[in-house]
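ok trying again, last paste got cut off:
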Amino acid sequence: MGWKIRDLREDQDMTQKTLAKLLKVNRSTYTMWELGDVNFPIEKIVEIAKLFHTNIEYLLELSSNKQELIYPDNVDKEFIGKRLRVFRHKLNKTQKEFADLLGVRQSTYFYYEEGRNRIPTEKLIILAKTYRIPISKFCGGKKKEKTTTPV
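nice, full thing came through this time. structure:
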């Protein structure tokens, strides 16, 4: 799995060490994420999207659209869990159906929705692709409001 994060970091003449420090992680951890490690926490991907003024889908190479999205400050496992529940209900699906799709136990999926466990980014990608829901929606991403200048 490839990521656009390296390209964006290099475009800003930023080192891995600098970006790792901004994300409050070890450089070796960041390096693994940049190389496509599937354990890349979605919360950190949101932070990077904010830093580089883009969106999650672009960073994960799920879209070529670089458009900046605005994400809430509190994107964490509880926030994402609530969003998972909302989208599951909108799709009229059960926790078991989502768990089966993701290849996890229903109790594991329950913990994702309750915000007790962080849903792995690879599982969010499966949900996004299956139901055509941008991952940004699970993270509260919204389009930037256009500002108008008074005449």
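cool. The mean pLDDT is 92. The radius of gyration is 16 Å.
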